[in-house]
Amino acid sequence: MRQRPIGTATRGTTHPNRLRRMDRWIADAQGPALRRADAPVAVDLGYGAAPWTAVELLDRLRTAEPRTAVAGIEIDPERVADAQPYAREGLTFVHGGFEVPLDTPPLLIRAANVLRQYDEDRVAEVWARLRARLAPDGLLVEGTCDEIGRRHVWVALGPEGPRTVTFATRLGSLERPSDLAERLPKALIHRNVPGEPVHAFLRDFDRAWATASPYASLGARQRWIAAVRAVSADWPVADGVRRWRQGEITVPWDALRPNGH
What we know:
The chain is of the alpha/beta class. It is built from nine helices and eight strands.
């Protein structure tokens, strides 16, 4: 007998292209693993009231590996039924939750705007459950974004645990890097207080952004690159200019790990 889905339904808000920044990063970071796999499978966990994010994830991952298949998993059976007209070769919709009811361990689980509604003390448990469902070289990407996809922050985790935190933004909409604090994932959002590493990082990034203000005349992208380069003098930055140009910065999880964890 199949177990009851684990978790609770999300609010379900979704818009086309909301997760494009996250998807671009995933296609770049996980593309090699998808290409190596005999049967590359990815999961859009908790896709919401409409299937757009699962449809778009398939299209974007197939730019990295055309054989990729995506399963959209939703705990609300009505949402699964409503999504069925969008199913096609390589795209399925499945009733389920954090147990990820697939026969093939996925190389990717994307859980965007799913844990926002949970208490902070549930995060480690959910992370562990999802990581246990990954293929050996799989990746869990869990994070939050605003309603139209201008600001994202996500944590990337392997089967062994959390690896990195990525901040991504539409640069033209940014006043200062700490604007991204409102989109910190559940594991970090309540830690944006003095004495915590994520607070110190955003404070230093704001200072670097202010110092880089002369670059604003060359455009927001050049200012962002200069600010990232400056903050990387004091903080480990896990990516390079190619990703910075996209309005991203990735930092090892251990640098931002909450105190006591």
